[in-house]
Amino acid sequence: MPFINTKVNVSISQEQEQTLKTQFGQAITLIGKSEPWLMLNFDDNCKLWFKGSDAPAAIMEVSLYGKASSAAYDALTGRLTEILSSVLSVPSSRIYVKYSEIAYWGMGGSNF
């Protein structure tokens, strides 16, 4: 039950969003999860400042039911930043990735 919330200060076209969706769905397997359980949110044109500049930047918040290994998180961070850099031209040095491991996650009126 991963959720990836992506905020960027650039525009995302429908085509780019579709590409991001597909590639994030493939990348999530790096932490042992699958696309059928993946939820995504894309917020573009946010007012993000990083290192004193409003140059292209992003923050990605990955919420995960359960846990993954440090190595898996490292691999996912690398892949997610690679994807954003490729699709949206946001330099990897201007992308934060934040992880939250969630003990309780509900869906359909009950918890897992």
Q: Give the CA-CA distance, first to last residue.
A: 10 Å
| Sequence of strands across the biggest β-sheet | 2-1-3-4
The dominant shape is globular
Which CATH class is shown?
Alpha Beta
Number of helices: 2
Q: Give the averaged pLDDT, no decimals.
A: 96
Helix content: 25-40%
Percent strand equals 25-35%
Rg, rounded, reads 14 Å
Order of helical and strand elements: EHEEHEEE
Stretches with pLDDT under 50, minimum 5 residues: none
- Overall number of structural domains: 1
In CATH terms, the superfamily is Macrophage Migration Inhibitory Factor
CATH topology: Macrophage Migration Inhibitory Factor
Please give the CATH architecture: 2-Layer Sandwich
The number of distinct β-strands equals 6
